[in-house]
Sequence to fold (265 residues):
Amino acid sequence: MKNMLKYLMFFAVLFSVFSCTDDELPNPEYDKGSYLNFAKNEGTAGVLVGANHFDYVIDYETIAAVSGSHDVKLVFDAANSTAVEGTDFQIINATDNLASGENTGKFTVRVLESGMTPIAKVAKFKLQSATIPNSNFRQDFTLSMSLVCNAATFVGMFDVNNGLFGSWSGQSIVQGPDPNTLLLKDYIEVGYDIKLTYDPNSGNITFTPQQTGYLHPSYGMISMKMAVSGAASKVDFCARKVTLNVNYYVNAGSFGDKVDTLTGI
Fold:
């Protein structure tokens, strides 16, 4: 009798697992690829001085491959933007087609040098289709666009306000040995150059952990790495300014995240 009860309980549990209603399952429409959204929510585009324009690609997608042919439109949200269409940017293909079997597409936005300044302007976009409904996520895309000056006109001498070592003048910054790199010469000590890698479009800076050359009397060599908080470092070639969010540390621990600013003289 006990064994019979065990079997009955097992089949009761099994039946309850496989007897869910449609309302308890994920929306079946998702499996049909009929929901539309951006691949990500935001992007950054910088047009280099003298380049005339910069083309930025905005990707979108559906949950799964579509059946049949569908047109998708990129709609500019002028009311919530600071950029002006036709002056600051152009949409190269305002309508894109998803063919049967596809689930990704793209639009191209052309950022115009003539309308850009070093201070970023923002353009917001939405997706629209007469045959594909929108999903309930990633429905807005924000493109931040600005003017980027050439690194060749940026290098030279700088004033430094260092979050750990204080302030000084006459800091040399030169172009690095690799594309899109800068060297902070003898920063912090003579013979120790700090190599920075920058994105020429966004101005974002990254760098690997590096020794500063400074020997702490108790803890030894002080090194530097990107801020633990994840705060971004930036270079503004037009304003000739570098902002480094940096973490200074030794083997025994960290001095914490600091902000170093270098301003062109």
Summary: Residues 87 and 148 are 17 Å apart (CA to CA). Residues 2-17 form the longest helix (16 residues).
